[in-house]
């Protein structure tokens, strides 16, 4: 069984020998940011490498950037689910004759996904959702109009309509 250090060394590619981070840029923070934009996994392996080498400051910088990158990723996921949820509700309100069980399922599924994201990332509070509400609504309206192939008369959605109202086929 190989030790951690041998495992780290086996995973190194030649371009990662310039420094513990694996990039040749001049700023450590910029390097971590660049790497985090490419791959969270690669950031984690480079943090591990920095720890094995005893470069704790570099590892700490990498951990901070990884945390930030993961937070950004979760925020994008939240926005995506909120847009999806709102678009289905806009279609629900705009085309009552086309309502389907799949729309109902999509609405509840998006609500569940948003709840899961909020549980996993406590910084993504209801207030964070309120801060992105207008931008997400506009994107959702564009998406819904594209799917319906017509303009929507829905000019806004309330919190209750999006998160509390019951949607069912009658």
Which regions are unreliable across 5 or more consecutive residues at pLDDT < 50? 4-28
Distance, first to last CA: 62 Å
Helix content: over 70%
Query: What is the approximate shape?
Result: elongated
Query: What string gives the helices and strands in order?
Result: HHHHHHH
State Rg.
Answer: 22 Å
Number of DSSP-assigned strands? 0
Q: How much strand content do the residues show?
A: under 5%
Can you walk me through this structure?
The chain has about 170 residues and is an all-alpha fold. It is about 70% helix and about 0% strand. Helix 2 crosses helix 4 and helix 4 packs across helix 6. The longest helix has about 40 residues. It is elongated, with a radius of gyration of 22 Å. It starts with a helix and ends in a 6-residue tail after the last helix.
List the helices and strands and how they pair.
Elements: H1 4-10, H2 28-38, H3 40-52, H4 56-94, H5 101-120, H6 126-148, H7 159-164
Keywords:
mainly alpha; single chain; 0% strand; 170 residues
What's a concise summary of this model?
The chain is mostly helical and 170 residues long. Helices cover 70% and strands 0% of the residues.
């Amino acid at each position: 069984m190989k030790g951690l250090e041998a495992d780290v060394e086996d995973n190194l590619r030649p371009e990662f020998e310039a420094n513990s981070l694996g990039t040749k840029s001049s700023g450590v923070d910029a390097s971590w940011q660049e790497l985090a934009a490419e791959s969270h996994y690669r950031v984690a392996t480079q943090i591990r490498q920095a720890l094995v080498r005893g470069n704790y400051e570099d590892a700490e910088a990498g951990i901070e950037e990884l945390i930030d990158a993961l937070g950004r990723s979760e925020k994008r996921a939240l926005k995506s689910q909120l847009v999806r949820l709102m678009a289905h509700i806009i279609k629900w309100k705009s085309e009552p004759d086309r309502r389907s069980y799949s729309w109902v399922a999509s609405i509840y599924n998006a609500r569940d996904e948003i709840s899961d994201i909020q549980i996993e990332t406590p910084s993504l509070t209801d207030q964070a959702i309120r801060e992105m509400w207008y931008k997400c609504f506009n994107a959702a309206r564009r998406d819904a109009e594209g799917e319906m192939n017509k303009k929507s008369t829905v000019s806004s959605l309330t919190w209750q309509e999006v998160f509390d109202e019951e949607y069912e086929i009658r």
